[in-house]
Amino acid sequence: MIKNSQKKLLITGGAGFIGSNFIHFIYNKYPNYIIYNLDLLTYAGNIRNMDNLKDIKGSKRYFFIKGDICDAKLVGGLFKKHKFDIVVNFAAESHVDRSISNDYHFFRTNFTGVHNLIALVRKYAIPRFIQISTDEIYGDVHKGASGESHPMHPSNPYAASKAAADLVVQSYMRTHKLPLLIVRGSNNYGPYQYPEKLIPLTITNLLEDKKIPIHGDGQQLRRWLHVEDFCRAIDLIMNKGKDFSIYNVAGSETSNLNIVIMVAKVLKKDPKKFIFFINDRPGGDRRYAPDATKIKKELGWSPQYHIKNHLVNVVGWYLNNEQWWQDIKKKQAFKAYYKKQLRSEY
């Protein structure tokens, strides 16, 4: 357990969607935390996500370092210099479609980068390390729910790279007796999410009167979790989680198609005019169903936001921040991705 005194916290991948929201959450909650944000600023961990942190830029409690978690010399130097109390790793390549097209960077960052981090955690005796994982490592769950001891059965290169990371973290727990933790979150949504993901893509395409591509029949089931609920869960695990533990964190279940219909309803659009179906991706899973009973019983966590009730606020954020997502979507890299992966002109 982390005591209530000044702490140095390293967030890797802190310019990404969840990482930047977590930094903001921790900064506002804990005046005794000094936060270091290490990010390579790839397409998803982009400089526009730093808008989420602009109000703390220049603070004596927040520092940004551009760098790669695979760079052992850089990361080792940071560990040696700052003597971190806590490291939370959000750094990851995270889009399934991109992993199917080219998985090299997924295994480099999601596996090799994680191995580099925990080897340095061991070398410099960092007291607390949390690996942010995903429910996708469990694979397709046709019935019931997947608890933390459920076998890993990843269906695509992204999920496989995250499962490999979980395994190397667990191996360090057992072999080197390091009190590491793993957090497996379900599908997140909220402000500053890169617009290739389903919810921001749906919102922004509808605002631009563009078609919405849906994989397969759209009946894939996911447990949708607001990013603030996820941040609260990680905070609880960081401060009260049991050493050597894995925690699932999940929201409420609904289908991808229903998400699109709900967003269209908020924007008063007819979804039938905008939806078009494309072939399901190779290795596509029908249902993810992580069981979050453990964190609820041990740490008293429960989600505060239900997607059916809170989606209107998320839509409102994208309405009020058009410049943020328009700057991303107008870039040639995004247009090329959209055309290649979603078989559609942007």
From TrEMBL:
<dbReference type="GO" id="GO:0008460">
    <property type="term" value="F:dTDP-glucose 4,6-dehydratase activity"/>
</dbReference>
<keyword id="KW-0520">NAD</keyword>
<dbReference type="InterPro" id="IPR005888">
    <property type="entry name" value="dTDP_Gluc_deHydtase"/>
</dbReference>
<dbReference type="InterPro" id="IPR036291">
    <property type="entry name" value="NAD(P)-bd_dom_sf"/>
</dbReference>
<feature type="domain" description="NAD(P)-binding">
    <location>
        <begin position="10"/>
        <end position="309"/>
    </location>
</feature>
<dbReference type="InterPro" id="IPR016040">
    <property type="entry name" value="NAD(P)-bd_dom"/>
</dbReference>
<dbReference type="Pfam" id="PF16363">
    <property type="entry name" value="GDP_Man_Dehyd"/>
</dbReference>
<dbReference type="GO" id="GO:0009225">
    <property type="term" value="P:nucleotide-sugar metabolic process"/>
</dbReference>
<keyword id="KW-0456">Lyase</keyword>
<comment type="similarity">
    <text>Belongs to the NAD(P)-dependent epimerase/dehydratase family. dTDP-glucose dehydratase subfamily.</text>
</comment>
<protein>
    <recommendedName>
        <fullName>dTDP-glucose 4,6-dehydratase</fullName>
        <ecNumber>4.2.1.46</ecNumber>
    </recommendedName>
</protein>
